[in-house]
Amino acid sequence: MNYTSEETLVWHKACAVDDIPADGGACALIEGEQIAIYNFERRGEWYATQNLCPHRQQMALSRGMIGSTGASQEPKVACPFHKKTFSLKTGACLSGDDYQIKTYPIKIEEGFVFVSL
Amino acid sequence: MKKKIVVVGNGMVGYKFCEKLVAKDTNGSFEVVVFGEEIRPAYDRVHLSSFFSGKTAADLSIAPVQWYADNGIVLHLSDPVVDIDRTAQTVRSHHGVVAQYDYLVLATGSAAFVPPIPGVEKDGVFVYRTIEDLELMQAHAQKAKKGAVIGGGLLGLEAAKALLDLGLQETHVIEFAPRLMPRQIDEAGSQLLQAKLESLGLKIHLNKNTQQIEGEEAISAMKFADGMTLDVDMLVISAGIKPRDEIARVAGLEVGVRGGIVVNERLQTSDPAIFAIGECALAHQMIYGLVAPGYEMADVVVHFLTDGDKTFKPYDMSTKLKLIGVDVASFGDPFVQEPHAKTIVYENSSKGIYKRINVSNDGKYLLGGILIGDAEQYNMLLQNVKNKTLLPPDPEDLVLGARGGKEEAGSGVLSLPDDALICSCEAITKGAIVEEVKAGNNTLDAIKKCCKAGTGCGGCVPMVKDLINETMKAQGVYVRNVICEHFDYTRQELFDLIKIKGYKTYNEALADLGKGDGCEVCKPAVASILASLWNELILAKGNDTVQDSNDRFLANIQKNGTYSVVPRIPGGEITPDKLIAIGQVAKKYSLYTKITGGQRIDLFGAHVSDLPNIWEELIEAGFESGHAYGKALRTVKSCVGSTWCRFGVQDAVSFSIQVEERYRGLRAPHKLKSAVSGCTRECAEAQSKDFGIIATEKGWNLYVCGNGGVKPQHALLLASDVDTETCIKYIDRFLMFYIKTAEPLTRTATWLNKLEGGINYLKAVVIDDVLGLGEQFEQEMDLLVEAYKCEWKEVVNNPALRKRFTHFVNAPTVKDPYAKFEPMRDQIKAAEWTK
Ligand code: SRM
Ligand SMILES: Cc1cc2nc3c(=O)[nH]c(=O)nc-3n(C[C@H](O)[C@H](O)[C@H](O)COP(=O)(O)OP(=O)(O)OC[C@H]3O[C@@H](n4cnc5c(N)ncnc54)[C@H](O)[C@@H]3O)c2cc1C
Ligand code: SF4
Ligand code: FES
Description:
The complex is a heterodimer of chains A (about 120) and B (about 850).
Chain A: E1 11-16, E2 24-30, E3 33-40, E4 45-50, E5 52-53, E6 58-59, E7 65-69, E8 74-78, E9 85-87, E10 103-104, E11 106-109, E12 112-116
Antiparallel strand pairs in A: 1-12, 2-3, 3-4, 4-10, 5-6, 7-8, 8-9, 11-12
Chain B: E1 3-8, H1 12-24, E2 30-35, H2 57-60, H3 65-70, E3 73-76, E4 81-85, E5 90-93, E6 98-100, E7 103-106, E8 110-112, E9 125-127, H4 131-141, E10 146-150, H5 154-165, E11 170-174, H6 187-199, E12 202-205, E13 210-214, E14 221-224, E15 229-231, E16 234-237, E17 241-243, H7 246-250, E18 261-262, E19 274-276, E20 281-283, E21 286-287, H8 291-305, E22 319-321, E23 328-332, E24 342-348, E25 353-359, E26 366-372, H9 378-386, H10 397-400, E27 421-423, E28 428-429, H11 430-438, H12 444-451, H13 461-474, H14 491-501, H15 506-513, H16 522-534, H17 549-552, E29 556-557, E30 563-565, H18 576-588, E31 592-595, E32 601-606, H19 611-620, E33 633-638, H20 652-663, E34 672-677, E35 691-695, E36 700-704, E37 716-722, H21 724-741, H22 748-754, H23 758-766, H24 774-787, H25 791-796, H26 799-803, E38 821-824, E39 827-830
Parallel strand pairs in B: 1-2, 1-7, 2-3, 7-19, 9-16, 10-11, 10-16, 11-12, 18-20, 33-34, 34-35
Antiparallel strand pairs in B: 4-5, 5-6, 8-17, 13-14, 14-15, 20-21, 22-23, 23-26, 24-25, 25-26, 27-28, 29-30, 30-32, 31-32, 35-36, 36-37, 38-39
The complex binds siroheme, flavin-adenine dinucleotide, iron/sulfur cluster and FE2/S2 (inorganic) cluster.
């Protein structure tokens, strides 16, 4: 959410909190775009990224396993196809390739998930 | 007064001489001046080709200029020595530097031998020796399409690989001799190597004598003595090496008829104050074109100068070809044959493997050999030759590996003598490495740092690793294979802990036994343990999101994000009605339909949101999940057996259905496959399965731990002529033992290969019940069998679970517009993905 202030963001209602499985992800269609939403329940955190895996252009990141890595416990998702992993915070590829995915601001209000594109 | 040493040539051997002298000359009794012709200090020529796979000149550098200064060595680069005055004992360089010497060391190496073919001076013709050569090639290759290499020897093939890597459309290898690598391997081996290289895309021409290189300024074609021409726009000449003996010649030192500075066992030339080492030296009437003997020569001279006594003995010229994508090795005396030796040959042309070993007539010693296609045993065999190890009674085991449940032939690395040379580049013995490991340097990196073993050609690295592991084991250090950064346990430990604590979910296990938030390695591993222990629905209790993608959606994900559907068809037996039902479902949902290699039917291209509907219809028609997506029992294949076949001795189909229904849904560290054949003709291929059963007149023979796939391996006989009940009992015990003790994603074959005591131990556990766990294994299996439910049936009947099968949570009826198909032979296929 770097440098953008709350007020200037346009929020889109994505789905109900219950629609996203605990410690996993699901995909929502927002403004014609496929957005992967992750409910990192054990950390009480939510993340949103593009659903497209840049490796072989598969709409699959929302179906990947999430977890964390390293001393800093960087939250990450592993693509179900070939297990390339991406930071949920920065979108950087953590498995040594030169990929970058988009991440989006996300918030929870009254049982609903909102994402800003 | 300090003695003055001048070194001419700053290549690999010249550098090694300096390094060794610095190490030995602790009281500084020498003054060293080095002249090098190249612009950079010595670099790793052996790995020159890695320049094309992204290594830079800096990566290849052996020691920076600063190293020489730090050690008091005066280094003149880009300044070759042009003249030696033996009376005044001075050398003069191209730039006019004159240096006085007490001892002169010539380490001028060699140059590529360029045959006198008209046209070799044209643009686009290269040699392959220095970094500059490679830079020139790289620049030229950008506009070149067809390349050729003259020379089908060790270096020529490496150059050919480089051309492939440079992205040329065609690469030809031109060899004068009737076969490739004539100096290292025999006729049969050459043929096989040739076939392999051709399959990599090289075009090979033998018996070809290049007569002319054509073209205006730049090369455009090559013309051969037999009249053929070949259009090429790039050529690398790698037809051999020519020792750089020119300054020695002018100075009147003795040189060989075909070049090379003649030296004695102490590497002295005909002038005792002048030494020659490395590829410029002719020792024992031979040019040693490898780096290891060169290093040995440097060591001998350093010994001489520092009052040691050492001589240079004829050196082993064993080699292993690197980089080309085909294993090729030649060791000891590869060619010796009857009547001087006995030769054992193993050839498997379909797999591209050729192995030859030459054994002394008394059968006691290995003399040499050739390995092509699989050189895994190279290091061990080389050690056998060098150390004159006594051979096992069946020397063929050395190349064929142990068969039929015998212990691995030969013996482990630890049985080598302490003075066995493991790293010949750096002359490091087994004893030295073992000492280092004991002193705490127990990783490969640590060993490389502390004694340099493995830093040269790298060929000994597998052996160094084995030595590290074996030494640690021998010290009683338990080498643990922990799951990942989140669980500091081996799978077996985790299995036992989860069982004792009775955990049913991943989160419980992580909270108590792990740390962090888990990852894609430990999640499926723990999920598999939970399933093997309790056989509960894998999607329940929040365990759905710890499943690998295929398990999470109970279907195999395909190239375009859709899924496949594989109903169970036990034993491959199916009624016409059920066939029709499958056909109808496939038609309705536009699924590509194929008979699988596992005797059942796979339906591809299902959208995730269609999966529950498809399964609802299949279940209605009497099908259940086939678990094609799980690390679980897949199929039990059958042959038709005694019900129809005139040779059948038992009813294989009925038994395979019984076996498949018993173990269906059983989750394990990896997938499980089985088969039942009705007689010894083995039409069901039971001996390639994790457990396979073959009918006998008296009952069944049970085979275990076979594998097709990546590394095929035949199953081994566990029990013979057992009745049906005993057969099931043994399978229960075998499977539970495997499930409890195997590491994640390890098939039974690999598990057995690592099991201490091998098949004999497995027999003892399963049949003789040495662990006293037989009955417990059977009971545990009974519980799992009882707990079995078709997981698709559970999902279909559970609205909450069904709801998870959508592509868009906020638009459940919309299908993924990204999932694209293309037509193919009246059906569809997944659209090609972008690479
Ligand atoms: C469909 C099928 C090929 C076919 O069109 O015939 C197939 C398809 C796949 N195989 Fe296979 N294998 C199929 C028979 C085999 C066989 C033959 C057999 O079982 O008799 C083998 C060799 C025998 C063996 O396993 O020992 C085989 C050895 C493999 C391997 C290598 C296993 C190994 O130990 O080396 C893999 C990779 C793995 O499991 O890690 C694999 C993995 C796969 C996967 C699951 C790859 C994946 O993860 O997407 C494929 C997807 C199936 C799907 O989407 O439905 N498949 N695969 C066959 C399904 C059989 C069935 O009815 O269940
Ligand atoms: C592509 C390639 C792959 C190889 N692969 C392997 C392998 O896998 N295994 C293996 O064991 N060996 C391999 N070799 C051979 C190995 O590189 C040589 O055996 C080793 O480099 C020999 O060392 P050297 O010091 O004798 O010669 P060089 O390394 O050639 O060094 C000689 C140096 O002396 C310089 N020089 C010459 N004349 C003068 C002069 N008058 N004044 C000053 N300097 C002079 C030269 O310019 C050169 O820099 C390979 C070689 C090449 C080219
Ligand atoms: S052999 Fe390879 S490509 Fe063919 S089905 Fe099996 S895994 Fe897929
Ligand atoms: S498509 Fe995501 S890792 Fe390959």
